[in-house]
Amino acid sequence: MKEIVLFALAFSIVNATLEEMLWRGTLLPVLAGQVSWLYALVVTSLAFGLHHIALGIPFWPALGFSIGGFFFAIVKWRSESLFPPILWHFIINLLMVFSGFILPY
Fold first, then answer.
1. Which of 50, 72, 92, 94 is 20 to 30 Å from the Cα of 83, by its Cα?
2. Rounded Cα distance, 9 and 97, in Å
């Protein structure tokens, strides 16, 4: 059990931080500087889901990840900070590990 808890914490911290820095911290504001914020939000959210398909996640869960990306982008926009979406992403990752969706082996 200790190994699963350590894996869940390490995976969730690293994954949430890096994905949010990339998707909502870099790509979303860069694209929003070129097009409308709503268009940038939709495109990066869909791309977030497609990215997970490329990682081997089936279509329907990846569609859910796109919805999550939309949620994270709204949280980032409303809070004007990257910390709240990182925290939400961290919590969701923990739940996915403990539910068995993401396994350490």
1. 50
2. 9
What is the SS3 string spanning the chain?
Answer: CHHHHHHHHHHHHHHHHHHHHHHHHHHHHHHHCCCCHHHHHHHHHHHHHHHHHHCCCCHHHHHHHHHHHHHHHHHHHHHCCCHHHHHHHHHHHHHHHHHCCCCCC
Q: Identify which of 6, 12, 8 has the alpha carbon closest to the alpha carbon of residue 100.
A: 8
Mean pLDDT by 10 residues, the chain (105 residues): 93 98 98 97 97 94 96 97 98 94 75
Q: Record the tokens describing residue 38, joined without a space.
A: 């709503």
